[in-house]
Amino acid sequence: MPRIIPMKDLRNTNEIMDMCKESNDPIFVTKNGYGELVVMSMEAYESLTRSNEIDKAITQYESDIANHVHGKDARTLFSELKKE
């Protein structure tokens, strides 16, 4: 379940940091009842970024296949992504 907090609660930095680390889920920050920011742990951010890179690579590979462009095999592709 997503956590939603008002902007004024950002003053409690240690509490927010603990909340992020406990759940690895983002915390949504609102201002005047509207979404304004998202706060997450560095670990969660890096995981999200890695997932997005893999998704982009898969999408590109599928596009290459559909357009008959000779690409890399999956093992090579994932090996290169792990190096980055």
Automatic annotation (TrEMBL):
Domain of life of the organism encoding this protein: Bacteria
SUPFAM superfamilies: YefM-like
UniProt xrefs under Gene3D superfamilies: YefM-like domain (3.40.1620.10)
InterPro entries in alphabetical order: Antitoxin_Phd/YefM (IPR006442), YefM-like_sf (IPR036165)
Pfam families in the cross-refs: PhdYeFM_antitox
Record-stated family: Belongs to the phD/YefM antitoxin family.
Function: Antitoxin component of a type II toxin-antitoxin (TA) system.
Protein name: Antitoxin
Source organism of the structure: Veillonella tobetsuensis
